[in-house]
Specification:
- The protein is mostly beta strands.
- A six-stranded mixed sheet has the order 2-11-10-5-6-7, with no helix packed on it. The protein has a six-stranded antiparallel sheet with strand order 14-17-18-21-20-19, with no helix packed on it. Strands 12-13-16-15 form a four-stranded antiparallel sheet, with no helix packed on it.
- The longest helix has about 35 residues.
């Protein structure tokens, strides 16, 4: 009888210890998972145009449920630094910088997968800056740089790059600034046909906006009219500059130092001796 009671007590103790062991393992796993997880932001700046909606990426790796955590987005360059705060599942609007109220949100369904990316609506020029995503209780933080493009790209500027006396050819250069995303550059003749040009040179500035330039060598044609078109299909933006080269340019070099700038309704006209250039900006 005594042996039976001892076996019964032993089984009862094991049945009690088993769930405790599982719970302890879960706690240990959670603890180490929290220690190993890292908040990951994008490798490059995020660029948005004024008026757009944009997502600032930030997520935990390895994946971990952060539904119950306090989540913060902030900008340390602002006096009132909080951009978005979620605590106990509630958005704390009263602690946010007034300029962000009603414009920020998290993807609540994604929190269980460790995704705390921020959606920022109706982007303003003042939104440009470095954003920090933070999980204070875990001691995890990452950052995202947002660049705001005003949309004020510069019209292409065409300049005379050279004259080949022997071949009777003129070399034209075209440059346009403040683009994002990176645009393409096209050269067209007076009939709208594409011209074969050299490779486009692209420079990405510290502001993460692109400057593009391209050169083309042209021969004398019926109208001697040429167009440099810079376009970005993703944002439906096109800007172009037209140039008309006098016949004399194909015969002999001319002094190109007397450049004057004159505003004209419908565009800009540059007079390079007798070289006429006009610019046109289109946004569809």
């Amino acid at each position: 009888m005594t042996d039976i009671m001892k076996q019964t007590d032993r089984l009862s103790l094991q049945s009690l210890l088993r769930p405790l062991s599982v719970l302890l393992l879960q706690l240990l796993f959670t603890h180490f998972s929290k220690g190993e997880s890292q908040l990951i932001g994008p490798p490059h700046s995020v660029v948005a145009a004024v008026g757009d909606d944009v997502i600032l990426p930030c997520h935990l790796e390895p994946v971990m449920d952060v539904t119950a955590e306090t989540l913060e987005w902030k900008r340390f360059d602002l006096k009132q630094r909080f951009v978005h705060v979620l605590r106990a599942g509630q958005n704390l609007e009263h602690v946010k910088n007034p300029s962000y109220r009603g414009r920020t949100s998290l993807f609540t369904d994604e929190l269980k997968r460790g995704n705390i990316s921020l959606k920022l609506s109706k982007v303003q020029l003042s939104d440009q800056g470095i954003y920090h995503c933070d999980i204070p209780e875990l001691g995890k933080q990452s950052s995202v740089k947002l660049v705001v493009a005003s949309g004020a790209v510069s019209p292409p500027v065409i300049s005379l790059a050279g004259i080949d006396r022997e071949r009777g050819e003129v070399i034209l250069n075209c440059e346009s600034k403040s683009w994002h995303p990176e645009p393409e550059v096209l050269w067209l003749d007076g009939e709208g046909k594409l011209l074969s040009a050299g490779p486009t040179e692209t420079v990405r500035g510290r502001d993460d906006l692109y400057t593009v330039s391209s050169r083309v060598t042209v021969e004398k044609r019926h109208s001697n009219s040429f167009t440099c078109r810079v376009q970005q299909r993703n944002i439906n933006q096109t800007t172009e500059t037209h140039i008309q080269v006098p016949d004399d340019f194909f015969k002999r070099p001319r002094d190109a130092t007397g450049m004057k700038l004159k505003k004209k309704e419908g565009g800009i006209t540059l007079k390079l001796t007798e070289l006429k250039i006009s610019s046109l900006l289109k946004r569809k």
